[in-house]
Every structure is written in structure tokens, then in C-alpha cells.
Amino acid sequence: MRKSRQPKGSWGRRFLIAVPYLWLFVFFLVPFFIVFRISLSQPAIAMPPYTPIFELDAGLSSFVQALKELSLDNYLFLLDDPLYVNAYLSSLLIAAVSTVFTLLVGYPVAYGMARAPTAIRPVLLMMVILPFWTSFLIRVYAWIGILKPEGLLNQFLLFLGVIDQPLVILNTTAAIIIGIVYSYLPFMVLPLYATLEKMDYALVEAAEDLGCTPLAAFWKITLPLSMPGVIAGSMLVFIPAVGEFVIPDLLGGSRTLMIGKTLWNEFFSNHDWPVSSAVAIVLLVVLVVPIAYFQRAQARARERGL
Amino acid sequence: MASLGSTRRSFAPWTDPNAKAYIRFDNVTKRFGDSVVVDNLSLTIYEREFFALLGASGCGKTTLLRMLGGFETPTSGRILLDGQDLAGVPPYRRPVNMMFQSYALFPHMTVEKNIAFGLKQEGMPKAEIAERVRQMLKLVKLEAYADRKPHQLSGGQRQRVALARSLAKRPKVLLLDEPLGALDKKLREETQFELMDLQQDLGLTFIVVTHDQEEAMTMADRIAIMDQGRVMQVATPAEIYEAPVSRFVADFVGSINLLEGTLLEAGRSGARIRDVSGAEFGVTDAGEGQVGQTVWLAVRPEKVRVTRQRPADVRNALEGEVWDIAYLGDMTVYNVKLDDGRLIKASSINSVRAVEDALTWHDRAWVSFAEDAGVVLVR
């Protein structure tokens, strides 16, 4: 076992550990409980538009009173109305499909980068990060110009003669998927590149030496060994994609259903803070499952010494 | 005629003009961009030979091995294996296997799966694979470790798994890239002999790349000394050591005293050399030296004697002062500084535990060597 070289009770060390926890407490846990509290209250025409459950300064009696008034009505309402269930399911599906496509596009990119001459790798890495220099909103907006019926893509395909009618892509699920794949590609490429780059290429050569064709060597060696990167990249794409709001709002039109948009509507159009809070809490719970899986997979990979 | 050094076994196909070459490099050149890594190299290796490529790092020895394995393509020239041109044959179709310097064990597979990997690719039936894996594990004495993953093994055990994996397919030729480089000294020495026994028992052709001359000398039937992409000498370990063809080879393998001089006369009964200080040496054989030519007399330190008095019976003797003494346990190395400033190395076996009147620093001393102790070199 490794012995700690730090003297016991080193204040500097405690401070270092405390800072991130304090940060998480203030900016994650506290807001989470505020949202959770709102989700248990009733909507009201007021400012803020919900009945206060309890006030911290009103003493213990009001706390007991508040506990009595707690209701899971908002959560039951979510289950009752198929709109919400469908929105969750459709979000998970769109996010899953987008993640698969991002992986299919991102893997070759990351592989190519990891096998490129060492001298040009920083340049390639820079090119992956470069889109972040432009606002995310503007980049998604630009896709409207590409995907709309008289947009660049349709004009190009018409010019080539591949199609004779403009394709309807904008305001469909396909447009959302394209938008997500484009926007989240770097989050897939970077962890994949990190795992592929540190993989010993001699392993592939050894596989070929032992009779594998290059393709077989990829399936049996490279892909299994890059699984930590595949999982990390997929989670980094899937988790935010489920709750994505901007992309479905700009590219998906009014008919496609995603939970981020539903939440926005509840909050800003219906001013139903309690229900939208419940939507947010349920979304979090739904995402805890893949996050937990991700954590476990990472821990296992560390155990195997990958 | 006296033979050079001791021979391990009567195996010398290179002396037989009718012996068939097993592996042939024909004028092979390999360039990476502007740099020539292997330079118009030709080499013949025989079946069942334990062949070593010895050189400093960057001399092209690993590239040569990788070209044979199929991981690099020669820029020009041909490589033949058993008469078949290997050009265009991918690594997975070559009847050679390689043991990689990093071992390249698959980290996500157990020892057993690693060894079975190549056999599975061949489509061998499961029962046969199991049997072969068992044999291989026994061969490298790792039966108890079949279910371990590589990261649960020590360096020496990993080396054995890599060896078992590369031997499992029973290749015609096994290529070993610095096979013992990652092991500590004791383990390395043990493993050298194990590798030799294994090669003998299996009757395979081994080609080993190494920068460790002791390793090459111990294991190989023949050694190719490489420098800057070229082969400087191919010979048995004893020939390389006792009859180097150039100053480079003499200096590369072991340590050497090189005495520059002019060849005065050369004949059947011997030759005479006048060295730069004016002293004259007698040698039994002038080698390739021509009379009047500048030559170097190469004498190994263990063939040089250091004495207080000039030995009466030896013609080749020089006087100087004991400059340095290195006591190594089994032997002692003396550096004697001649009066003209040259340093001569001499080593003597410590065959007795205590020496009376031993030479010490700054003592006047004579270094001497027999007429057949040195080799006359012209390159």
C-alpha cells in the first residue's frame, strides 16, 4: 500500500479537497434541492408562480406544516399525460441514435489522428477544438442555411442530379440528429483519441503477425482496447444530448418532441414551474442510470490496467 | 589448424558451399524519407541457425527484422525465404513469427488466450488449440498462470508468455527483437541458455536483434555486426572476437588495443611492424596488409601481460607506467600509459587470492604480447 507522505491534518490538503466539494455543493446540490422543492409545490398565479412550501425563517412549525402539504401530484401528472412519457422516450431515442452516428463518424477521425505522424497531431487536435471558437448557437443556426429546402445541401444534390426534388430535412428528426452529431463530435473524438493514442501499435502488429488481417486485428485488438474511450465519448454525447434544447428548437421544428423543449415550454409558455421542475428532476433520475454505468465501466477499465 | 574459440556444436552450414540458403537478403535498401536505414545489404541465413544482428541503436538491425516480418517494405532489393520472394506477402501470411521488444501482449486477454490467439486465427479445432496451449505453457513453465492477465505477471513471466505466443504457431522462423532487453541481469543470463535449448530442441531458425554483445556471443551461431545500415562482418562469435575484419568490429566487440604502425615486411615466416613510436613488433600473420602500408595491430587486453621487468622471451614489449587499475573481482584491468602517451589495456585473471608485490599505481611496468596475439587490420 502506498503511504501518504502528507503530514496528518495538513490544512492545505484539506482546503484543496474542500474547494471542489464546496463548488459542487453551492452550484449543484443547493440548486438541485431548490428545484426539487419547487417540484413538490403547486402552481399559483403569483411571483414566483408557485405556492411556497416552507420558508427556512418561519421556524419548525411551518416546516412540519410544509411536510404535510408535500405532494407528488406533479410527478403523477407527468406519468398521466402521454406527452411527457413520449417526450422522454423520443429524447432518449434521438440521443441514442445521434450517439451511434457520432461514434461512427468520430471513431475514424480519432483513429486517423492517433496514427498520424507525431509532428502533425497537435495541428489535427487543434482542428477538432477549433469549432469551439465560434458560438454554439451560431454554428447550429448555420445548419438551417445548409439543410433548408433551398439550402446549400439541396442545391448541391440538385446540381449533381442525385435528386430532382429538394429533400425535406429541416424541421425533422433527421435534422436534429445531424445537428447533434455535428455539435457533439469533438466530445466523442477527444476521449477516443486519448485512448487510441496511448495504445501500443505493436499490439496490432502482433495480431497481424499471428495471422490477423488488418480488419480482424481491428475488431479483436484495437476496438476492445479502445472501449474506455468509446464509453467515455458516448456518455459525453448521450447525456447532454438527451436534455438538448437549442438543437431541436432551431432544427427540429414544432412537431418533434424532445424533453428539453417540453421543459422550456412548461417553464416559459405555461409558467408552470412546479411541473417543469418535476420534468427536470425526472430527467436527472433517468440520466443517473447511464452515468452510473459509465462510472462502473471506468472503474473496471482502471482495474484491468487499461 | 587451431580453431578459434570453442565451438558449441558441429553446425556450420556457412562453410559448406552446397548448403542451401534459407533466408536471403539480396541488395536490400530501406529509406525513410532522406535517411538510408538499411544500405544495399546482402545476407544469407541458414535453416536451424541461431543468428544475431548486433549493433548500436539506429544501425538498422530492427528495420531489417521488421522487413522480414513484413512490417516494413524494402525500398529496393529482395528478401527470400526458402526460395520464395516475400515481396507483397503481408505479415499475416508469412511463416515467420515475431517476439516484440515490448512483448505486445494483449492486455485484455488472459495468458491462455494470448497464446491461443494465433491458433484461433488459423481455424485450428478447439481441442487441438487447448492441447497446444498446454504444451506451450509447459514449455515456458507457466502452467499455473494460464488465467492471469498480462498486468498480473512479472517482467520475466511476460517475456515467457510472449515467447510461447510467438512459438505456438510453430513458425519456420522466429524473429526476436531485443528479447531479453527488459529483464534484469541474472534472469537475462538464465533465459539466454533457455532460448538456446529451446531453439535446439524445436529445430527452428532464430533471428535475434540485440545491442548486447554478450547476449549475441552467448546465444548465436553467427553474428552480423551492423553499422549505419551495413553489415560490417558476419561470422561466428569466436571469429568476430579473435579475427575481426576491421577496427570498427574489433572495437565494437569487447575492448581492444589498436597500435598504429607501418608494415615493414611480410612473409611466410611472419611480418614486422614499426609502430608510431618507433618500436618494432613481430607478428605471425600480416593479414591483408601490404608492405609499406599503414596498418593497425589489434590486441585484446587479456592477451597482454603486465610485468615489472621486460620479459626475456617476448619480442613485443613496451614500457610505461601503471595509470589505472580496475579490480573487477574475477579479473583486474590495468591501464598502462606508455612513455609516448598512448594507453594500453591489459587484463589478467585473478587466479590466486593474494598476490605478492602486486603492481600498483604509478609503478613502472612493461606490457608485452605474443607474436600471434594480435590481428593486423588495414581498415
Automatic annotation (TrEMBL), chain A:
Major localization listed first in the record, in broad terms: membrane
Keywords: Cell membrane, Membrane, Transmembrane, Transmembrane helix, Transport
Membrane disposition: Multi-pass membrane protein
Superkingdom of this protein's organism: Bacteria
Domain ABC transmembrane type-1 residues, every copy: 88-294
Compartments, as annotated in UniProt: Cell membrane
CC annotations in GO: plasma membrane
InterPro entries (alphabetical): MetI-like, MetI-like_sf
Transmembrane segments: 21-40, 87-111, 123-147, 167-193, 225-247, 273-294
Keyword Transcription among UniProt keywords: no
Any single biological process term in GO: transmembrane transport
SUPFAM superfamilies hit by this protein: MetI-like
PANTHER family: INNER MEMBRANE ABC TRANSPORTER PERMEASE PROTEIN YDCU-RELATED-RELATED (PTHR42929), PUTRESCINE TRANSPORT SYSTEM PERMEASE PROTEIN POTH (PTHR42929:SF3)
Annotated protein name in UniProt: ABC transporter permease subunit
Taxonomic source organism: Chelativorans petroleitrophicus
From TrEMBL, chain B:
Membrane-traversing stretches: none
EC class name: translocase
Gene Ontology molecular function: ABC-type putrescine transporter activity; ATP binding; ATP hydrolysis activity
Source organism, top-level taxon: Bacteria
Gene Ontology CC: ATP-binding cassette (ABC) transporter complex
EC number of the protein: 7.6.2.11
Catalytic reaction list: ATP + H2O + polyamine-[polyamine-binding protein]Side 1 = ADP + phosphate + polyamineSide 2 + [polyamine-binding protein]Side 1
PROSITE patterns according to UniProt: ABC_TRANSPORTER_1 (PS00211), ABC_TRANSPORTER_2 (PS50893)
Keywords: ATP-binding, Cell inner membrane, Cell membrane, Membrane, Nucleotide-binding, Translocase, Transport
Span of domain ABC transporter: 23-253
Stated family: Belongs to the ABC transporter superfamily. Spermidine/putrescine importer (TC 3.A.1.11.1) family.
Oligomer and partners: The complex is composed of two ATP-binding proteins (PotA), two transmembrane proteins (PotB and PotC) and a solute-binding protein (PotD).
PANTHER family xrefs: PUTRESCINE TRANSPORT ATP-BINDING PROTEIN POTG (PTHR42781:SF5), SPERMIDINE/PUTRESCINE IMPORT ATP-BINDING PROTEIN POTA (PTHR42781)
Function recorded in the entry: Part of the ABC transporter complex PotABCD involved in spermidine/putrescine import. Responsible for energy coupling to the transport system.
Protein's recorded name: Spermidine/putrescine import ATP-binding protein PotA
Source organism (scientific name): Chelativorans petroleitrophicus
